[in-house]
Specification:
Rossmann fold; five-stranded mixed β-barrel; two-stranded antiparallel ribbon; 14 strands; alpha/beta; 289 residues
Amino acid sequence: MIAESELIINQDGTAFHLHILPEDLADTVILVGDQGRVPTVASFFDSGSIECDKSSREFRTITGRYHGKRITVLSTGIGTDNIDIVVTELDALSNINFSTREIKPEHTTLTLLRIGTCGSLRADVPPGDFILSEIGMGCDGLLNWYQGVNDVSDSIMEQDFMNYMNWDNRLQTPYFVHSNSEIVAKFKDCPKGITMSAPGFYGPQGRSIRLKLTYPDFVQKLEQYSYKGHIMSNIEMENSAIVGLANLLGHNAATICCVIANRHSKKCITDYKPYIEKLIKYSLDCLTV
């Protein structure tokens, strides 16, 4: 039995942060950062199919159907610390009996797809285009708090990258995790690569406003990194934790992002809503084929 202090369940039987019941959750989950993007995703659901619409803090959840397939869309907020909350509670909702607080004898596998935005490191992927994360690099350190990290991460690639970067030992040790191959295969026509998940938007992504950086040439060095044919493609802030925790917990996960800034060309778009809507439709179609 899992103690009350470790898995907090609200008086109404919902998960502590997400405030949803086990029956509110579909096995296929779209994760978005912005809670305002949740109704945008849900607007593509079949007419009259929405069965759940709940909000708590930055977490908003809507469950409905797309072409008959039951899907949940959930906002996570920004950063891998929030992902620790979201993925852990999604797994608990699926694999813990909330009445007895015991692990269910049969494991339920979730499919998690993050639909987000990113900065591209590739000259050939401009703002408005999409990138699928085939490999995630985490600079947040979150996964290192869990046993089994060595079973789901690529330690050889980790060492290769740290040697290449002459990694500063004051920074968190990066980890590399592979997205679920079945999800990746569904997005046949999308550029793919290594995605860095940064623990911040400015300095950790090589942006210097008033403070000087530990790695002034960080973006340039990332652009030039490759490993066994995989190239560093983009930077965002959540993918590594989603894929890493999913791999540890026995779920399938990947991330697809719309490029809103190209760090190579220095070009950026701020009115990217039409591109996001196109990405949502494309992602839903790929997941439900």
